[in-house]
Write a structure and sequence with these properties.
The structure holds 2 protein chains of 2 kinds. Chain A is mostly loops. Chain A is elongated, with a radius of gyration of 19 Å. Chain B is of the alpha+beta class. In chain B, about 40% of the residues lie in helices and about 25% in strands. Chain B is built from 11 helices and 10 strands. In chain B, the strands form 2 sheets. In chain B, strands 1, 2, 3, 5, 6, 7 and 8 form a 7-stranded antiparallel beta sheet that branches. In chain B, strands 4-9-10 form a 3-stranded antiparallel beta sheet, with no helix packed on it. The termini of chain B are far apart. Classes of the chains: A little secondary structure, B alpha+beta. Chains A and B meet through loops of A and helix 2, strand 1, strand 2, strand 3 and strand 8 of B.
Chain lengths: ~50, ~325
């Protein structure tokens, strides 16, 4: 049976879905220091062994 | 476009790039091997794997003893400055970030712990904060140089029914020590005089709680975001795999959706991506999840299954043929 293709945008998220890490809004502060972290989303540009 | 001759020379000379890269790597290695640095690295490893800070005396001193932290940062600077003198265009081999008024440099990181320098600079466009953000991270800070002011927040009655945020004015100056130990405390720097340099040691809990942002005008929760960096990385990676139409990754993505040890948002994103890539695989996965009564995704999976069957009669017909489908 050929099944119709589902469009990702029509598939809902969870009711309890949270924003991604670090997405707490920072527009309301002088300094964006409320979550200080460096996040590599996909891959490291530098090999990890030379980084502290 | 004008390119500085030194940059142009470096761009055209892979050998020079390699030499500069190697040299700064050696500078970092020499710094890490110092008698006063090697114990700190060991203690960051211990602290990052769950040891109490009080059992890491040298590391503890860096966030409570002004003289000790100045000595430590002075040593780091002298190595780096020598390295950059030899290779002014070399890349400093420490992770760093910058945003308006704030730069960070990660000195040592291991497990759940990170030791970093934060540099705050005075901003012309000072913005009064309208929200406070509470994370479950533990943080210990000591001001190395400079001055700033801001607020320290305490969150009371965090069961969401009657939340109250108490704000106190706070001042930072050389030697100021601040600890944030749980998710009911937060600090916000609002005004910096000139530049302030701060040493920060932070540790993410084993199971990070969601990050909560409250509006200061009425203490209402306005946003919840993941406190788990790895989980968010996986959500992003799933979206990339989906956009690349990676059918080869389908089995791995399906396994992720079924793994109850994973974060719920990651598992649900995996399910969405499978459904979008292969309706047949996705419906089998959905059928599987919808009958797992001990699974937090059972209810949302049943609901989505019912919605899809209502939307598309072909899907309902296919769905009736599968009870539990495991590949």
């Amino acid at each position: 049976m050929d099944l119709p293709k589902l469009d990702l945008s029509t598939l809902p998220g969870l009711d309890t879905a949270q924003g991604l890490f670090g997405s707490a809004s920072n527009a309301s502060a002088s300094y964006d220091d409320r979550i200080v972290d460096i996040m590599v989303y996909i891959y490291d540009v530098l090999p990890p062994e030379i980084l502290g | 476009m004008h390119t500085h001759p030194a940059i142009a020379a470096l761009r055209d000379d892979p050998d020079l790039q390699r030499r500069s890269h190697t040299h700064l790597g050696e500078v970092s290695g020499a710094w890490r091997a110092r008698d006063d640095v090697a114990p700190i690295i060991e203690q960051v490893q211990l602290y990052g794997s769950g040891t109490a800070l009080s059992e890491c005396p040298d590391l503890h001193a860096l966030v409570c003893d002004h003289e000790a932290v100045c000595r430590f940062v002075g040593g780091w600077q002298s190595h780096l400055i020598d390295g950059l003198r030899a290779h002014p265009l070399g890349e400093v081999p420490f992770r760093q970030s910058s945003s308006p008024g704030l730069a960070t440099m990660q000195l040592v990181s291991s497990g759940r712990a990170t030791l970093r320098l934060l540099v705050y600079e005075q901003r012309e466009d000072e913005i009064a904060p309208t929200t406070a953000v509470f994370t479950s991270n533990e943080s210990h800070e000591c001001v190395i140089a400079g001055e700033a002011s801001g607020q320290i927040y305490h969150l009371h009655d965090s069961d969401y029914s009657n939340t109250q945020i108490i704000a106190h004015n706070a001042f930072w100056f050389p030697g100021t020590v601040l600890q944030i130990l749980d998710r009911t405390e937060a600090r916000q720097i609002t005004k910096v005089n000139g530049t302030m340099l701060l040493m920060q040691l932070s540790r993410v809990p084993e199971k990070p709680c969601p990050v909560r942002e409250f509006r200061l005008s009425d203490d209402r929760l306005v946003k919840t975001s993941s406190g788990d960096k790895r989980a968010s990385q996986k959500v992003m990676a799933l979206a990339v795999l989906g956009a690349m139409d990676q059918m080869k990754a389908l089995d791995t993505i399906e396994a992720l959706a079924l793994d109850q040890a994973q974060d719920d948002d990651v598992r649900w994103e995996a399910l969405r991506q499978v459904l979008a890539q292969s309706t047949r695989h996705g419906l089998c996965l959905l059928a599987d999840l919808a009958v797992r009564h001990d699974d937090p995704l059972q209810k949302p999976a049943s609901r989505l299954q019912a919605d899809l069957f209502e939307r598309e009669p072909d899907l309902a017909r296919f769905g009736r043929d599968i009870k539990i489908c495991r590949k």
